[in-house]
Design goal:
mainly beta; 2 domains; 5-stranded antiparallel sheet
Length: 347
């Protein structure tokens, strides 16, 4: 050990030092997007990584909730040797050199994004809170008071956050009667029904689509989607509609659609409309199909189909699951009570 370091350590005293806890713990795995009080809990995306210490002072971090219910990091300094005297630590936080989504020269005042608060003046423990997403890595420094060169550091990152998902599915028939379903922020969807007057018309439709997982624009560590899965299920009301066509189905039993993932977007291919709507491989007469459509028209206000999208993320970031509830529109109209009063009309 250098002579200056030996003198510094001799000048520091052992005061109730906390045991070092596991290093590199971070708070980005909870799925809830909001903390208590309805405000974003940005600390969930904060990742603190201690540098490992220098033999005199070392830092460790663990996640906790503060009195307001927000996710924060508690940083603990451990001084060696344990019988040192007057162990007093000064804490600071500043922007580092590693650039994230902001790029160089885009940093604001760090106190608008991150704060570090010692338990008391010179304390061995400090609390770090994230006030807003940030796009440049920050550095926490803890040094022995009076000896600025005897220090340890932690890096602080903001891990890209999963926010939402959007999807679209398009069905193409034999003619120009194509139908598109858009699944956005609202989980209640009115979806146009396929222009099919028989089961064979329905079988002529094929579908394709895409699903995109949306992530935050500001970050120092990019996450992104590791998987996106799309599945569908029938409601009890839709099962009742299929029964009119002589088809037996199970409600709330999800089937997965085939997809391939590139970046944050999953591409859906070869969606058979008759399979999606429960007619695949079934022999249905025109009368049975008419009874099925009639039931849909009479119950157009009911949810018939559920589409579930599950997203998992990289970097241990929480993804999410979203269920869209589809009602069908443009099914057709019921015709009845027609009277022909003109005797000159001939058929």
């Amino acid at each position: 050990m250098k002579e200056g370091v030996k003198k510094a350590v001799a000048a520091v005293s052992a005061v109730g030092l906390a045991a070092v806890v596991a290093a590199g713990v971070w708070a980005g795995v909870a799925f809830s997007r909001q903390g208590n009080g309805g405000n974003d809990d940005f600390g969930q995306q904060m990742q603190v990584t201690p540098s490992g210490g220098n033999g005199v002072i070392s830092l460790a971090s663990y996640t906790k909730q503060n009195d307001e219910g927000r996710t924060v990091q508690e940083i603990t300094a451990t001084v060696t040797p344990p019988d040192a005297t007057n162990a007093i630590v000064d804490w600071s936080i500043s922007w580092g050199d590693a650039q994230g989504s902001w790029g160089s020269g885009s940093q604001g005042d760090i106190s608008d994004y991150l704060t570090i608060t010692p338990e008391s003046d010179g304390a061995l423990t400090a609390e770090v809170e994230c006030l807003a997403p940030f796009g440049t890595q920050a550095v926490i420094t803890a040094n022995i008071r009076g000896y600025e060169d005897i220090k340890d550091t932690c890096t602080v990152d903001y891990v890209q956050k999963y926010e939402d998902v959007t999807a679209s599915i398009a069905f193409n028939g034999t003619g120009s009667d194509n139908v598109s379903w858009t699944l956005g922020s609202s989980t209640s969807v009115t979806a146009g029904f396929l222009d099919a007057e028989s089961e064979s018309d329905l079988a002529a439709y094929t579908g394709s689509g895409s699903v995109t997982a949306d992530y935050s624009d500001v970050y120092t560590i990019e996450s992104g989607a590791s998987s996106v899965t799309v599945s569908y299920a029938y409601t009890a009301e839709y099962v009742a509609a299929l029964e009119k066509a002589g088809i037996t189905a199970t409600a709330n039993s999800y089937e997965t659609l085939t997809s391939s993932l590139s970046g944050n977007t999953a591409t859906l291919t070869a969606i058979a409309a008759d399979e999606l709507l429960g007619f695949d491989g079934e022999s249905v007469t025109d009368e049975e199909y008419d009874a099925y459509r009639t039931y849909l028209i009479e119950n157009a206000s009911d949810v018939m189909l559920m589409v579930k999208i599950d997203v998992t993320s990289n970097e241990e970031v929480a993804g999410g699951s979203k269920v869209y509830r589809l009602k069908f529109s443009d099914i057709g109209s019921l015709v009845g009570n027609i009277e022909l009063s003109d005797s000159n009309i001939k058929f």
